[in-house]
Design brief:
Blueprint: E1 46-50, H1 74-84, E2 88-92, H2 102-109, E3 115-119, H3 127-136, E4 138-144, H4 155-165, E5 171-175, H5 181-190, E6 195-197, H6 212-223, E7 227-230, H7 234-237, H8 249-258, E8 263-264, H9 281-291, H10 295-311
Bound molecules: (1E,3Z)-4-hydroxybuta-1,3-diene-1,2,4-tricarboxylic acid.
Residues 51, 94-96, 149, 175, 198, 236, 268, 272-273 line the site of (1E,3Z)-4-hydroxybuta-1,3-diene-1,2,4-tricarboxylic acid (0GY).
Length: 316
Amino acid sequence: MSTDTAGRSPQASPLAGGHAFTMDADWKVFDPRPSRPRFRPPPGAVDAHCHVFGPGAIFPYAPERKYTPCDAPKERLFALRDFLGFTRNVVVQATCHGTDNRALVDALVHSDGRARGVASVGRDVTDAELEAMHAAGVRGTRFNFVRRLVDFTPREVLVEIAQRIAPLGWHVVVYFEAQDLPELWDFFTSLPTTVVVDHMGRPDVGKPVDGPEFQRFVRLMREHPNVWSKVSCPERLSKSGPPDYDDVVPFARHLVETFPDRVLWGTDWPHPNMKVHMPDDGKLVDFVPRIATTTDLQRRLLVDNPLRLYWEGAAP
Ligand code: 0GY
């Protein structure tokens, strides 16, 4: 992809009429020159978890945000998509934009139909706003329970939102830490929509795959056929580290082989809040054939499942 270094520079944008911001001093910027993956995704492959940030001068970061990132605009995302050999994106609203989905919607409407979105909405969202987002390609809303990223939202508010978006055929994406699953279980299993879990419910990969913590998550998926999982973010979960993220493979592979029709994969570009290393997106793509070891599993993971959920609008 392009070798320009726009993504590297600390960004302070005191533009006249714009929105000034300064990215966090410890912010790690995405790799501007990832390697070309050895694995070739099947035709039509979808990167089903990625974000756009800003540009902050046009789409300001939310006042309530917990971090200020570098800009990661749609043009960079689409260039990465093409470089990695993917056809489509699912862009997930990041917490740094709060419930202001303008950057997300802007990416969708400029994608030539090659991107769908997951928004974040509050209880004050109007029916007209939901319909406009749907027309732009939004197909889900995200509920975030990770304390370092968001303030607490009462469950009754989330229930109300879920009931509002269900008639549109949207689903709910949930992001939480593994230790919080017991407390969230009843809420998740009461949701009236498909429920997509980010990053396998963030398992502690230092614990065994067949241990109680991860098996609790497996049980959630087994007992509730409306629950899907993204087998994403080895770079975030791994303790053994890059470039191979070996310790995450058994967890992701277990889900892919047990629930081949309810798994999704994404890069998580531009990798917010990575504190120690920034992954090489090419190497992340090379992770796929290690967790989906046959062409059939790869096609389901990267093509069939995301198309069914995001482009054909089908429930489980
Ligand atoms: C991810 C993970 C993170 C951030 C967000 O919306 C967000 O800010 O999702 C994280 O910090 O773990 O999926 O991008």
